Amino acid sequence: MHLHGTSCILGAALLVLLAGDQQFVSATPMEVFDNNGTMFAACKVRPSSTLQEGLPKVSGQVLFRQEYPLGVLEVLLRFNGFPKEEDSEPRAVHIHQYGDLSQGCDSTGGHYNPSGVHHPDHPGDFGNFIPQEGKINTMIESKATLFGGESVIGRAVVIHEKIDDLGQGGDAGSLLHGNAGRRLGCCVIGVSSSSLWKVQHKQYTRRLRKN
Questions:
Q1: Which pLDDT value is given to residue 116?
Q2: What superfamily in CATH does domain 35-210 come from?
Q3: 183 part of the active site
C-alpha cells in the first residue's frame, strides 16, 4: 500500500510537471522557435497626423531583438526629418501605452509604465538622442521586453519635440513624461521576421567601422 501510494504521488507530480511544460511551450511565441530562440519586432515611424505647422516631419524605423526569455532587449533607432543645423537639440524617444494612432500620436496615451514608477524609470524610457545631419541612427539596450505580461508588442514608440529632462524638472510633468514636448512621429510595435534586423544591423555595424 505504501509503495502504491508513493507511485500515485510521483505520477501526479509528473503530470503536473508535464502540464507546466505544455503551458510553457504554449506561452512561447512561435517566432522564437522559427528564429532559434530569438524574437524580433519592428515599427515604421511616420509623422503624427495631428502635427502642427513648422514642426519636423519625422519618419524612420525602430527595430527590436531579444533572446528568449530573459535576454537584454536590443533596439535599433533610425529616424530622419530633423533640422540639419549643427546645433540641433536632443530629442526624446519613449514607448507609450497604446498602439492607437486614431488621433495621430496623441492617442498613444502616456508612457508605458507597468510597475507604476516615476519617469525616467519606465521600461521604455529610451532617453535623448542628438540628430546628426537631420538623422538619428543608433543602437541601445532597453529594460523593456518582448515577452510575457509586460511585453511591449502592440504598444507605440513616440519621438518627441524636445529634450527629456529625465525627471529632474522639479514638477509633476517631469515625473510623468520628462517634459519632452509635443509628439512628432510614432509607430506601433509588431512582431517581425529576422530579415529587417539583419539588414539594418549590418548597415549600422558598417557605419561604426567607418567612424
A1: 98
A2: Superoxide dismutase, copper/zinc binding domain (2.60.40.200)
A3: yes
**How many CB atoms within 10 Å of residue 56?**
20
Contacts of 152 (CB under 8 A, 6+ apart): 41, 64, 95, 112, 123, 124, 144, 145, 146, 189
Does residue 201 have an active-site annotation?
no
Active site residue 4: no
Residue of 65, 91, 155, 160 marked active site: 160
125 tagged catalytic: yes
Q: Which residues of the chain have pLDDT under 70?
A: 1-26
Assess contact for 159 and 93: CB atoms under 8 A. Answer: yes
Residue pair 207/137 in contact (Cβ under 8 Å)? The answer is yes
Read off the pLDDT of residues 91-114 as tens digits, 9 standing for 90 and up.
Answer: 999 999 999 999 999 999 999 999
118 catalytic per annotation: no
Q: Of these residues, 65, 78, 91, 111, which one is catalytic? A: 111
Kindly name the residue from 122, 155, 165, 177 that is annotated as catalytic: 122
Mean pLDDT of the chain: 90
Cα 194 from Cα 44, distance rounded (Å): 15
